Amino acid sequence: MNPDYTVINNTAQHRFEIHVDGHIAFEDYALFDGGIAYLHTEVPPELAGRGIASFLIRSILDDAAAKGLKVKPVCPLVRAYIEKHPQYQANTVSDAV
User: Fold this and answer.
1) Which H/E stretch holds residue 48?
2) Whole-angstrom Cα distance, residue 24 to residue 66?
């Protein structure tokens, strides 16, 4: 069971966040011309095992696609997610930022 979490774009800190039970899971990002690089995923141990990282990554990849942004998956978790979900592979780049 994977509840619907709310993903917040914290533009001041350049990260997407999910707030749960007083903790914050997040994905750091950097924008580049025509795209977004996902740099680091962090989920506090207190939130582990709830599918939050997968939910967050799927949400930000869908958001990038909806905005027509190319994606540079610097973060190993994001890269692994894209490898397992081919629908996101056409939108990735490796030489930006």
Assistant:
1) none
2) 25
Q: Counting Cβ atoms within 10 Å, is residue 48 exposed (0-12), middle (13-18) or buried (19+)?
A: exposed
Distance between the two ends of the chain, CA-based, in angstroms? 36
- How many whole angstroms separate alpha carbon 38 and alpha carbon 41? 8
What radius of gyration, in Å, describes the C-alpha atoms of the chain?
Answer: 13
What is the model's pLDDT at position 94? 80
Contact between 73 and 38 (Cβ < 8 Å): yes
Query: Do the strands 70-73 and 35-42 form a parallel or antiparallel pair, or are they unpaired?
Result: parallel
The verdict on pTM exceeding 0.85 is: yes
